[in-house]
């Protein structure tokens, strides 16, 4: 990802410090919201493929992910939506163009339903109108990489590539998984998202 067009920034909203990546480009501004265990780098492949500079991009780390705050509570769709509703205000965006994946798309649907005057357009990927009653069980494979420490980043990537839902690999995914973990002094790595937060939906 070309560093000259990407800026790492923070904004305070709904008593939460959200981290986001800004990719300068043409108007309008697209606000990107990732899936439940993901982070702002989840869209790097699409951005590199031309989403930027065709659009100005704001890709958000939802609370509890990567560099955003990790409060002990507030991981429901409603609380996430409150975070995002405050984002356009802080960034001086009158009506948001929301382009989102999975859980991010669910947040967008909630915002569009409860705050329709704040949404200009929506692009929803792999979206559901509501959470499946067995969502926590279905998230099991994705959550299995969290809540543990790995001997190295390479070992972590091996775990990721062995996941049953991952049937291909693209180098654009590497920045996403690098942002997913923090390095420890002994060379081990630990995923940043906590599985307990991810299941408080």
Structure commentary:
The strands form two sheets. Strands 1-2-4-3-5-6 form a six-stranded mixed sheet, sandwiched between helices. It is α/β, with parallel strands linked by helices. The chain has one domain (6-198): Alpha/Beta hydrolase fold, catalytic domain (Rossmann fold, 3-Layer(aba) Sandwich), CATH 3.40.50.1820. Strand 3, helix 1 and strand 4 (56-61) form a beta-alpha-beta unit. The mean pLDDT is 90. The chain is globular, with a radius of gyration of 16 Å. Helix content is 32%, strand content 23%. It has helices at 44-54, 77-90, 103-114, 135-138, 140-143, 153-161, 174-179, 195-198; strands spanning 6-13, 16-23, 29-33, 56-61, 96-101, 119-125, 181-183, 189-191. It is built from eight helices and eight strands, in the order βββαβαβαβααααββα. Helix 2 (77-90) crosses helix 3 (103-114).
Topology as a string of helices (H) and strands (E): EEEHEHEHEHHHHEEH
Q: Give, in spatial order, the strands making up the sheet with the most strands.
A: 1-2-4-3-5-6
Radius of gyration: 16 Å
General shape: globular
* CATH homologous superfamily classification: Alpha/Beta hydrolase fold, catalytic domain
Strand content: 15-25%
How many domains? 1
CATH class annotation: Alpha Beta
Give helix % range: 25-40%
CATH architecture verdict = 3-Layer(aba) Sandwich
């Amino acid at each position: 990802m070309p560093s000259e067009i990407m800026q790492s920034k923070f904004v305070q909203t709904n008593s939460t410090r959200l981290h986001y990546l800004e990719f300068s480009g043409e108007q309008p501004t697209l606000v990107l919201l990732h899936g439940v265990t993901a982070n702002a780098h989840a869209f790097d492949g699409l951005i590199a493929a031309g989403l930027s500079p065709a659009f100005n991009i704001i890709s958000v780390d939802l609370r509890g992910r990567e560099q955003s705050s990790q409060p002990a509570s507030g991981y429901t769709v409603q609380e996430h939506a409150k975070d995002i509703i405050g984002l356009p205000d802080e960034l001086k965006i009158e009506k948001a163009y929301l382009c989102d994946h999975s859980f991010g798309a669910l947040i967008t649907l909630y915002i569009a339903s409860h705050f329709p005057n704040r949404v200009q357009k929506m692009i929803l990927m792999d979206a559901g109108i509501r959470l499946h009653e067995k969502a926590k069980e279905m998230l099991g494979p994705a959550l299995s990489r969290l809540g543990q420490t790995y001997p190295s980043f390479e070992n972590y990537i091996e775990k990721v590539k062995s996941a049953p839902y991952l049937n291909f690999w693209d180098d654009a995914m590497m920045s996403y998984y690098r942002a997913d973990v923090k390095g420890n002094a002994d060379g081990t790595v630990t995923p940043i998202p906590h599985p307990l937060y991810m299941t408080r939906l």
